[in-house]
Amino acid sequence: MTDSPNLKLPYLLAAQSQKHVTHNEALRALDALVQLSVLDRNLATPPVSPVDGARYIVASSPTGAWVGQTNKIAAYQDGAWMFYTPKEGWLAWIADENTVLVYEGAGWAALPGGGGGVTDHGLLTGLGDDDHAQYHTDARGDARYTPLNPATLGVNATPDVTNKLAVGSAASLFNHVGTGGHQIKINKASATDTASFLFQSAFSGRAELGTTGDDDFHFKVSADGTAWNEALVIDRSTGRVTFPLSDCDVAVFNTAGSFTWTKPLWANSNSLVKVVLLGGGGGGGSGRRGAAASVRCGGGGGGSGVLAQYETLSGLLGATVSVTVGAGGNGGAPVAVNSTNGNPGTAGGASIFSNIRVFGGNLGAGGTATSGPGGAATGAASMFTVAGVAGGAASTTGGVGVAGGAATLGAASGGGSGGGLTTANAVSNGGAGGAVSFPMSISTATGGTAGTAGGNGGAGNVSGGLFFGKAVGSGGGGGASSGTASAGSGGNGGIGGGGGGGGASLDGFASGAGGDGGDGWVVVITYR
Asked: How far apart are CA 481 and CA 372, in angstroms?
C-alpha cells in the first residue's frame, strides 16, 4: 500500500530517494483537508487571482482548470490547483454562508437536525426536489435554511431585496427580557429620509405615522395609497401640535423663550386668528436679616402676569410671526450679611405675538425694617385684557405675612408675603398665595407655617384647563420667619403666578429666599 486509506496521504517507501517530496505532498494534503473550511461552494469557474491556501468546493459543470472536478475540494497550493476527493461523512465550513455541510457520498448537504445549510431533496432517499409544494417558489428547489448571519429572513413569508425580513402571521409579539422594558427602534440615514410605520390594505397604503421627510412626527392617511392627507404634525423642537387639514389649527407655546409661529398653509386672508397670551409671574423678595428687638419684615410677594386675548385676520399677518413666552421672574436671594435688607425679586417677562404684548408680573420687594412691598398689579383691565394681580405686602411691624391678591376673572394670582419678626422677636407665618377663581375652578397655595426652622411657602397650584386647554396658576405662599435658624423660603408661583416672599431672620441666620414666578404661555388659534 502506497497511500493511507482515508486521506490518501502518500507513504514513504523503504530506500526511497527524495523522501522530502513525498513527505511534503502529505503535509500539503493535510493542510488542505484538516479543519476544512472553504470560501465558496457555488463556483464552477476558478477565481482569477486566488490566494495561496484558498479552498473551494467545485460546483457542477466546472470549467477551466476545474473541469471534471465537481464536488471535489479545490485547493490553490504553491501556485497550482490541487484536487481532493471527499469521502462520505466529511464536514466542511462554508465561509460565505456561515454554515456547515456534510458530504453524503453523492453531494454536499446540510447537517441533519437543523444545523444550517441547504438539504437538496434529491439527495434524500425516496424524495425528489418537487415532492413538497411549499418549496416550489425557491429558485434552488431546496429546503429553506437559516444561516447564522442571514442576509434575508422569512417567517412563513418570502423576503426580498427591499423587505429583508418578512413575517406571515396573525400577530407578532416583541416581549421584554427579565424585568426591563422593550424598545422598537427605527433609524434613518438623514433627516430628509423616512422612518415610519405604514399600514396597508391589499398592499396599498392607508395610514402612516413617523418622521416622513423631516424630523417632525407626522400622522397621514390615504384612500388609495397615492394621495395623502396629513392630519397631525408634532414639531420636533417645541412639541407644538398642528392640524393641517382640520377646521382650526392650535399652536401652543408654553416654555419660556423665543419661537416662530407659522401660518397654516390652508389659511386664506379672511381666516380668523385668535391669540391668547399670559405674561410670566414676578419673583418674590427675600426677607430682612436683622438684630434682635428690631422690626424685620418679610419679603413681598410677586405679582401675576397679565392675561389678554386678541383677534385678527390671517391676511394681516406674515407667513411667520415671532413669539416670545415670558419667563417667570427670579426670587430674591437670601441675605447672608447681618442687619441687611432683603433682596428684591425680578419682574416676570412679557409674552409677545407680533405687535401684541402683555406684561409680566411686578417683582416683590425685599423686606426692610419698615416694609416689604408686594409686586403691584400690572396693566389695566379692558374688554380684551385681565390685569395682573398684586402680590401680598409684608407686615410693617414684622407680623404675619399677607396673602397675595386673588384672581376672579381667570387670570393668575399674586404671591403671599413672607412672615416677619417683631421687636419682641415673635416669629410669624407667611401669607397664603392668592387663589385663582374661574367657573368651577379654584386653586390656592398656603403660606409656610412658623417654626424653629421656619416653614417654606407652598408652591402655587394650577387651575383646570381654562383657555383652549391652557391653565393659569395661583401665587406661591410666603415663607415663615425664624429666630433660631434660617427662615423659610417663598413658594414658586404656578403658571403665570407670582412667587411668594421669603421670611425674615435673626442676625446669624440666613433669611428666606423669594419664590420664582411661574412662566407664561402663548396660544394661537387659526380658524379655517
From this structure: 13
Q: Is the pTM of this model over 0.85?
A: no
For the chain, which residues score pLDDT lower than 70?
1-29, 31-33, 112-149, 381-383, 409-410, 438-454, 460, 462-470
Query: Rg of the chain's alpha carbons, rounded to an integer?
Result: 41
pLDDT of residue 449: 61
Separation of alpha carbons 117 and 141, rounded Å: 14
User: Among all chains, which residue has been given the C-alpha cell 502506497?
Assistant: 2
List, in sequence order, every beta strand (DSSP E) within 61-176.
73-77, 80-84, 91-94, 99-103, 108-110, 153-155, 165-167
Q: At CA 172, angle to CA 169 and CA 173, rounded to 5?
A: 155
115: helix, strand or coil: coil
- Name the helix (H) or strand (E) containing 25: helix 19-33
- Domains of the chain, by residue range, sit at 35-84, 194-234, 248-528
The 8 Å CB, 24+ separation contacts for 48-54 are 50/76, 51/76, 52/76, 52/77, 52/78, 52/79, 53/77
